[in-house]
């Protein structure tokens, strides 16, 4: 395990470790004292201002005179605060999803594409998300847009179209590293759609059609080659056996007569024709 991984884990468990509550000073003590007196005097009405409830998926970060109380978030369940002295910030720990609106990106091979994506993240440290960044949701959204442009700007068009998983993993790694100090864990990044210019779509379609036609011609040529080789082998076999050639001749006549109702005139047998041809050569 490298040093960066250890540092991440240390930061992610930071909110789970108790820290001593910092002193509020003399003036702070006076304000807290008068606030408690006010609560007692206005009881039971003040009890509704002191009791707070957070859900199971929420945590509350309590600030007392500008300082985080006890270094740990409150919740889930019921807890008390001191009005006029404590302020509360609720943080949702559930996984949040947002869309990265379509971004026009110039790829490495100088092609302009429009790409959109979806990001899933959650807050693992409520204190870090409140203390280290003003608006964790907006910051994560804008950082995701910038990361998408930076990652795809170093890729060729073919890589973007064929290696979406690798692009998503590269974005995930960069986003997770950048948002770790904010108490945010990026869980998943998915590239949704890659839209090409119309001219580029036509050019790619023409290229694909040309490749298909070329492959079809190659396959047809291979078929003709195999057929001619088979015909040559068949002709050699028939040349060695006159009886086989005669049977093939009769089979062809049978096929012709079966296709259409027509009269077929059988020529002289081939043996007779060969006899006359041999006699003619002898006389000459």
UniProtKB/TrEMBL annotation:
Its main location: membrane. The chain crosses the membrane at residues 30-55. Gene3D superfamilies: 6.10.250.2090, Band 7 domain. GO terms for cellular component: plasma membrane. It is found in: Membrane. Residues 49-208 form the Band domain. Residues 1-21 are annotated as: Disordered. It holds the Pfam family Band_7. InterPro entries: Band-7_stomatin-like, Band_7, Band_7/SPFH_dom_sf, Band_7/stomatin-like_CS, Stomatin_HflK_fam. PANTHER family: AT06885P-RELATED, BAND 7 PROTEIN-RELATED. Belongs to the band 7/mec-2 family. This is PHB domain-containing protein. The lineage of its organism: Eukaryota, Metazoa, Spiralia, Lophotrochozoa, Platyhelminthes.
């Amino acid at each position: 395990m490298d040093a960066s991984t250890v540092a991440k884990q240390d930061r992610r468990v930071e909110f789970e470790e108790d820290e001593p509550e910092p002193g509020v000073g003399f003036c702070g003590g006076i304000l807290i004292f008068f606030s408690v007196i006010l609560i007692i005097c206005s009881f039971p009405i003040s009890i509704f201002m002191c009791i707070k409830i957070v859900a199971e998926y929420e945590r509350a970060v309590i600030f007392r005179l500008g300082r985080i109380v006890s270094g740990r978030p409150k919740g889930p369940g019921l807890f008390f605060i001191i009005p006029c002295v404590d302020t509360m910030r609720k943080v949702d720990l559930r996984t949040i999803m947002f869309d990265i609106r379509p971004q026009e990106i110039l790829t490495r091979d100088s092609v302009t594409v429009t790409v959109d994506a979806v990001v899933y993240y959650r807050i693992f440290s409520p204190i870090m998300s409140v203390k280290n960044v003003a608006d964790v949701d907006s910051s994560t959204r804008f950082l995701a847009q910038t990361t998408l442009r930076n990652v795809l700007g170093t890729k060729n068009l073919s890589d973007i179209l064929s290696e979406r998983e690798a692009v998503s993993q590269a974005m995930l790694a960069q986003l997770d590293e950048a948002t770790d100090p904010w108490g945010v864990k990026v869980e998943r990044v998915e590239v949704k759609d890659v839209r090409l210019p119309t001219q580029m779509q036509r050019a790619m379609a023409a290229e694909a059609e040309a490749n298909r036609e070329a492959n079809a011609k190659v396959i047809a040529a291979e078929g003709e080659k195999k057929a001619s080789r088979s015909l040559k082998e068949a002709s050699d076999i028939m040349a060695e056996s006159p009886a086989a050639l005669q049977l093939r001749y009769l089979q062809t006549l049978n096929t012709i007569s079966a296709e259409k109702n027509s009269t077929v005139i059988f020529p002289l047998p081939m043996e007779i024709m060969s006899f006359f041809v041999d006699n003619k050569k002898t006389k000459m």
